[in-house]
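Q: Given only this backbone (323 positions), what sequence would you predict?
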């Protein structure tokens, strides 16, 4: 065989081996190596608590450690940047949410949701309006009346500039034509600030507040959902009270965009089994969250539709910076 022909044959055989190696590697995933879930907010936040619940179930089913690592900052932008830059091998995940769109359109992130491949939608949470248990406002109407009568007197905490709770807060108070002061605490600082009287009210996801509500230390005035949250059946929706604001928050798992499809499929199956389990459902109930599994294809549609909706909303309320 001539040298050139031999070289061509060797290259063809190597290519064949490489082509056959990819499915084997994906089939062996995770190969005994740990998996890391980046959470975009601090320990103790609603995102953190629910991510740890998911990670526990995934660890048992995969037989490897699934670790939660908190990378907070810039409404989620720091964590998104980190994961987007990692090797697309299924070992680095992000606890994705509506924040992938809010951070982009607020100008904190230079790329869109398309930098990630969706794996599975996991749960939904509904932002709520909360005050201290001893606050003078017993209803949302009373709070709005004061905010309208005294412009810039009422302070409203959220989880950070560009976060989902920030967008929700601005949308609600603009709908009420109430001029308030937004205070972008980090998620971990919001609860002590509200309990300590540093702010008057907060718009937050319920996982961080549920235990304080049950203990009587906080009171919920409204939820920003289409219908009443079954975790808080006595709390009216903003729509019931005359404000056309509905901003449900979803959470799910995403990976860097070039992650192999077989790896994504395996992660999707493990997440499905975890979300459908009784321990996950019971854990969500304690947090005021609700399991809402959707496979990768359907989750992709959810993300795209929400991105369009948030672009329109953020433009309407003056918070959209990206085109």
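A: Predicted residues:
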């Amino acid at each position: 065989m001539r040298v050139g022909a031999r070289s061509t044959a060797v290259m063809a055989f190597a290519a064949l081996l490489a082509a056959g190696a990819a499915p084997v590697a994906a089939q062996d995933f995770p190969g005994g190596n740990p998996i890391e879930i980046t959470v975009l907010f601090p320990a103790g936040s609603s995102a953190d608590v629910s991510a740890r619940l998911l990670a526990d179930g995934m660890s048992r089913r995969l037989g490897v450690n699934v670790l939660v690592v908190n990378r907070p900052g810039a409404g989620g932008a720091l964590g998104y940047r980190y994961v987007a830059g990692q090797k697309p091998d299924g070992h680095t995940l992000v606890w994705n949410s509506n924040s992938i769109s809010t951070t982009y359109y607020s100008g904190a992130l230079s790329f869109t949701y398309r930098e990630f491949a969706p794996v599975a939608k996991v749960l939904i949470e509904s932002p709520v309006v909360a005050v201290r248990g001893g606050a003078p406002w017993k209803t949302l109407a009373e709070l709005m009346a004061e905010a309208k009568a005294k412009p810039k007197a009422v302070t409203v905490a959220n989880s950070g500039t560009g976060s989902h709770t920030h967008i929700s807060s601005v949308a609600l108070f603009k709908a009420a034509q109430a001029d308030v002061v937004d205070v972008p605490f980090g998620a971990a600082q919001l609860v002590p600030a509200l309990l300590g009287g540093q702010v008057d009210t907060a718009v937050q996801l319920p996982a961080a507040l549920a235990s304080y509500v049950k203990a009587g230390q906080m009171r919920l005035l409204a939820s920003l959902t289409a219908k009443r949250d079954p975790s808080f059946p006595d709390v009216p929706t903003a729509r019931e009270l005359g404000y056309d604001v509905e901003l449900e928050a979803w959470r799910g798992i995403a990976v860097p965009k070039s992650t192999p499809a077989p790896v994504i499929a395996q992660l999707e199956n493990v997440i499905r089994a975890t979300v459908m389990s009784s321990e996950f459902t019971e854990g969500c109930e304690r947090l005021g969250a609700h399991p809402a599994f959707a496979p990768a294809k359907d989750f992709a549609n959810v993300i795209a539709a929400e991105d369009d909706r948030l672009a329109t909303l953020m433009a309407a309320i003056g918070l959209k910076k990206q085109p």
